[in-house]
Amino acid sequence: MGKSRARRFRRAPPAPSGPEQGDPEEEPAAELLEKLQHPSAEVREYACASISKLLQQKHVIPAFLQRDVVRCLGPMLLDHSLAVRETAAGALRNLSACGGFEVCDDMVTKDVMTPLVALLKECSTGLDANQISPKKCREMNKNYIEDIANEAINLLWNVCECNSTAVSIFTKEGCLEAVLHYMKKFSTNVDLAISVANCLQAVTEDNPDLLSSFNASAQQVLETVMLCPETTMKHVLLRTLIAGTIWNIKDTIPPGSLGSMVNAILKIFSESLAIDAGETIIRMNEAEKNRLKLAAEAETEENMSDVIDNCAVSEDDDMEEIPKGKVRREHDISDLLPSDKWELKEVTALLMAQQTALEIIVNMCCSEDPSDDEWEELSSSDESDLFMENSYNEGSGLLMSPLCLSDEVHSAFLNNLIPKKILEKTAFPNSVALDICMHNPSWKPLIKKLNTVQCRALTCLHSILLVSDVDCLGGASALQSLAQHLSQLVFSKTELPEDTDFLEAITSALRALLQTMASKNISQCMTPEQLLALCEAGIHSSNASVRVNVVSILGISGSVLAKLQDTAETLKMIGKFLLEVAMKESSLVVAGEALDALFDVFADGKEAEKAAVQMKLLPALKEFQPVFKLRMRKEGKEQCSTDQLCVLDNVKMNLRRFIAYQETLGKNPT
Question: Fewest CB atoms within 10 A around its CB: which of 68, 242, 309, 363?
Answer without folding.
Answer: 309
